[in-house]
Amino acid sequence: MERLDLDLSRPPPLPGTVEECHRVIEALWRALGEFQQIQARVEELEEQLALGSDNSSQPPSQDSPKKRAERKGKRPTGRKKGAQVGDPRHERALVPAEAVDEVRHYFPHGRCECGGSVAVRGFRPHQVFDLPEIRYRVVEHRVYEGRCGWCGEKHQGRLPDEVPRGQMGPGLVAWIGLMTGRYHLSLREVEALLEEQWGLRFSLGAISQSQIPLQAWLGPVYNQIGEAVRKALIAHADETRHYRGRSIYWLWALTTDQMAYFLTHYSRGKGAAGELLGDFQGILVTDRHGAYNDHPQDSHQYCWAHLIRNLERIAGRKGQAGEDGERLLRAARLTVHCGKLWQQSHYPSDRYRRRLERIKALFRRELEQAAQRHGDNKTGRSCRKLLDDFPRFWTFLDHPGVPMTNNTAERALRPYVIWRKTSFFSQSHRGDCFRPMILSLVETCKRLKTGVYQTLRTICAQGMAEGEVTFRLPLPEPQPLPVASP
Question: Could you tell me where the Basic residues compositional bias lies (predicted)?
C-alpha cells in the first residue's frame, strides 16, 4: 500500500495533476479497505473475549471470574448464610428401636435434694451414629492332596465353583469398580484408599487387572441397557471428548429419564452416531450437531438451550446484527416460557399451543428478515442455517411430552467430565471399553434409585460362582406420550 506522508500541522498541498488525484484516491480506497478489515478483526476478537457458557458451548468451568459473577445474577440480600429465623427445622429422624445396635441407660438420682424419691416416668432418646472399626476379611481355602496306598496314584481336592480363583472376592472387586466408576477415583487413589481404610496392599497392576473380569461380567447388563434405551419413545443424545493418552476419542451417550447408555468411538461423525442409535425409532432430542441429522426430521427435536446460547452470541454483536439478535433472543425465550407453561398444564387445552404457533410464525419471519438483511456475513449465514434447521426446533408441538432441552443427556455426561479431569484418562482399548460399561451401570442405577454397590456385588458374585451373569436390572417398559386434547 502506498503511504501518504501528511504534515498534520498545516493543510496538505492539493495534487497538481489528474494522475496524482487518481493515485491519492486509490490510496485512500486501499486504506479504507484495510481499515474495514482491521475493524472486522477487532470485532471478531472482542466477540471471542465475550464468549462464555451463556453464549457458546464453552463449559462453565472455563468462564472468567467476571463471567462467573455475572452468571450468579443474584443480588446480596444482606442476610447471614444458613437457616433464617422462622424457617422450619430439619432434624435427622430417629432409627427405630429394632435397628439400634446398643442401648445404654442413664437414670436420674433416686432421691431429690428435698428428700423425696424420684419416680422415672419416661426417657429422651439421644442417638449417636458412628462408623465401626473396619478390617478386611480373609478366608483360607486349603486344598489337600494324597496318594493311593495300593497303586500310588495322586489325588487332590478341588475348590468349589463359588470360590474365586484369584485373590480378590466379589465384594472387593465390586468396591474397586464402585470407587472408579461411581466416585471417579484414579487407580492410584484406589490403591492408597485400600491401604488407608482397609489395611490391604495390592499393587497397581493387580487393581487394574481386577477390571478385566468385571468388564466381561458387565457385558450382559450393558447390552440390556443399550437394547432398552433404543426401544424408548424419547431419548436424548450427546457426546464429549474422551482421551486415550494423547489421542482424542469421543464418549457418546444415549439416555432417558430411567436409563443411560454410553459408547466410546474414535469419531464424532455420522458413523459413530449411527452406531450409538442403532435401530432407535423414537423421538431424538439433541443439540445442533450435524451427526444426528440422519434421524428423521419429524421425530428430531433440537435443544432450545443451545439455540438461546447461539442467539446470545449474535445479540452481543454491534450494530444491526446485535439488534436482530436481541429480537430473536426475546422470541426464543418467550417460546421456552410458553412451552413450559404448556407442559406444566399437561396439555388440557389449545390456548398455549395457539400462542406457540403465533410465536413460531414471528420467529421465522424475524429469521428471514435478518438473513436477507445481513447477506453473506456471519450473522446472515447463522440465520440461514437456523432456517434450514427450523422444523427440528418445533417437534415438541407435534408430539406433546417431548422436552425442549437436552439437559437429560448433559447431566448424564457431567460425572464423566469430572472423572476425566481427575484421572489419567484411558491408556488402552480395554479402558475405552470399561469406562462406558461402568458408567452405564452407575448412571442407570442412580436413575432407578438402586444401590450401585449391591448391584455390582451381585454381578461379581454371579460371575465368580457361575461364570455367567444372569442378573438383569429392573428397567421400565416404554410409556406412551401424553396426547393433547382436541
Answer: 68-82
Cα 87 to Cα 63, 77, 83, 203: the distances in Å are: 34, 16, 7, 51
Instruction: Please name which of 175, 236, 235, 248 lies closest in space to residue 451, comparing C-alpha atoms.
Output: 175
What's the pLDDT band for 74 if we cut at 50, 70, 90? low
For residues 434 and 222, the answer to whether their CB atoms sit within 8 Å is no
Which residues contact residue 353 at a Cβ distance below 8 angstroms, ignoring those fewer than 6 apart?
342, 347, 397, 484
List of E strands, 165-319:
234-244, 247-255, 260-265, 283-286, 300-302
What helix, strand, coil percent values describe the chain, rounded to 5?
Answer: 50, 10, 40
Which residue carries 398455549 as its cell?
352
Least confident of 24-38, 45-59, 80-94: 45-59
324: closest CA among 310, 336, 335, 337?
Answer: 310
**Residue that is written with C-alpha cell 428435698 in the block:** 114
Residue 259 CA: distances (Å) to CA of 283, 367, 440, 448, 473 = 15, 37, 8, 8, 10
- The kind and range of the H/E element at 3 are none
Q: How far apart are CA 238 and CA 412, in angstroms?
A: 9
Per mean pLDDT, which of 21-30, 138-147, 276-285 is the most reliable? 276-285
Contact yes or no for 187/204 (Cβ under 8 A): yes
Output the pLDDT for position 482: 52
The DSSP H or E segment spanning 32 is: helix 18-49
Would you say residue 85 has pLDDT above 80?
no
**Computed from CA positions of residues 361, 364, 370, 375, in that sequence, does the dihedral angle turn out positive or negative?**
negative
Q: Whose grid coordinates read 471428548?
A: 241
pLDDT above 50: residue 264: yes
pLDDT for the residue numbered 486: 44
Alpha-carbon gap, residue 129 to 115, rounded angstroms: 38
Amino acid at 135: R
Q: What is the pTM (predicted TM-score) of this model?
A: 0.77
Q: Please indicate whether residue 441 or residue 135 has the higher confidence score (pLDDT).
A: 441
* CA–CA dist 201, 166 (Å, integer): 15
Q: Are 210 and 179 in contact (CB under 8 A)?
A: no
